[in-house]
Design a protein that fits this description.
single chain; 322 residues; alpha/beta; Isopropylmalate Dehydrogenase; two-stranded antiparallel sheet; 19% strand; globular
């Protein structure tokens, strides 16, 4: 039996994930679903945001549907997302950005870089170690190469090698791997790439970059399709897979029934594709488009439809496909 872990997390995770879960359960009632409670809310209740047994439970799932967690700026608070990514070795963060005019994938290294968690702080100085390893770089660029082959497209390497030595290391390994694989590639400084991606998104197919750069670049690219409320992501490793909206927990709008559930629902589409149900994945995307064509959308898209109401319309579209 296929087992799906459901993690609502914090903030609007409690609103968008129930919509996404309902979509998934409608398409696959035979799956086994189980909840895992992690995040800042858990920390407030128990003093621990994520335990070893939680990680062990997540490892029993065939896929994880994840909402969003709040990470407060406290030196003694460990990021739940970073812990899960490292514990499950989810080294490839895949963030698709597409509409009728363009379709590209940002492939972000997910376990090292500035998010390696090697830090120290004194009253006079704080230091974060940026780790770029050969192993980490080779496996993320090989994932990007596979995607470029599937898309029959160009691989673009984003870096800042003009000022950062670890980016020289990253760029050179990526270029060597792409050349050995016979995949067309180029490389760009990440600041210039950010601007060009916004101005000419149709030029791009697959972009690979380091952890922090990938995080920022994918958020910037969300502007092209209407904002963070529409962009899904996959966190993929050799054994485990987690799917989540790119947006955060948005505590300022939590509980108001105004959050956009599309990113979470499209994360379900990526989850289904990962499990081999490409038809189900396509039906989710088609249903989202159908509801939007009806003029139903949340406030961030200029509409007035609530989170729950959008979910109801989506379920109806899935039950009665065009």
């Amino acid at each position: 039996m296929t087992r799906i872990a459901i993690v609502e997390g914090d903030g609007i995770g409690h609103e968008v994930i129930p919509v996404a879960r309902r979509v998934l359960e409608l398409l696959h009632p035979e799956f086994e679903y189980f909840d895992v409670d992690v995040g800042y809310g858990r920390w407030e209740r128990t003093g621990c945001p994520c335990t070893d047994p939680d990680i062990a439970e997540l490892k029993t799932a065939d896929a994880i549907l994840f909402g969003a967690v709040t990470t407060p700026p406290m030196k003694d608070y460990q990021s739940v997302v970073l812990r899960i990514r490292k514990a499950l070795d989810l080294y490839a963060n895949l963030r698709p950005v597409k509409n009728d005019r363009f379709d590209f994938m940002i492939v972000r290294e997910n376990t090292e870089g500035l998010y390696s968690g090697i830090e120290e702080a004194t009253p006079d100085r704080a230091t974060t170690l940026r780790v770029v390893s050969r192993k980490g770089t080779e496996r993320i660029v090989r994932k990007a190469i596979d995607l470029a082959r599937q898309r029959n497209g160009l691989l673009t390497i984003g870096h800042k090698a003009n000022v950062i030595k670890s980016d020289v290391f990253f760029r050179d390994i990526c270029l060597a791997e792409a050349h050995m694989a016979g995949v067309p590639c180029n490389d760009k400084f990440i600041d210039a790439l950010s601007l060009d991606l916004l101005q000419h998104p149709e030029k791009y197919s697959v972009v690979v970059t380091t952890n922090m750069f990938g995080d920022i670049l994918s958020d910037v690219a969300a502007y092209l399709v209407g904002g963070l409320g529409l962009v899904p992501s996959a966190n993929i490793g050799d054994r485990y897979a987690l799917f989540e909206p790119v947006h955060g927990s948005a505590p300022d709008i939590a509980g108001k029934n105004i959050a956009n559930p599309i990113a979470a629902v499209r994360s379900v589409s990526m989850l289904l594709d990962h499990l081999g149900d490409s038809a189900g994945a396509a039906s989710v995307e088609a249903s989202v488009r159908h509801v939007l064509r009806q003029g139903k959308c949340t406030r961030d898209m200029g509409g007035s439809t609530g989170t729950r109401e959008f979910g109801e319309a989506l379920v109806q579209a899935l039950r009665q496909p065009e």
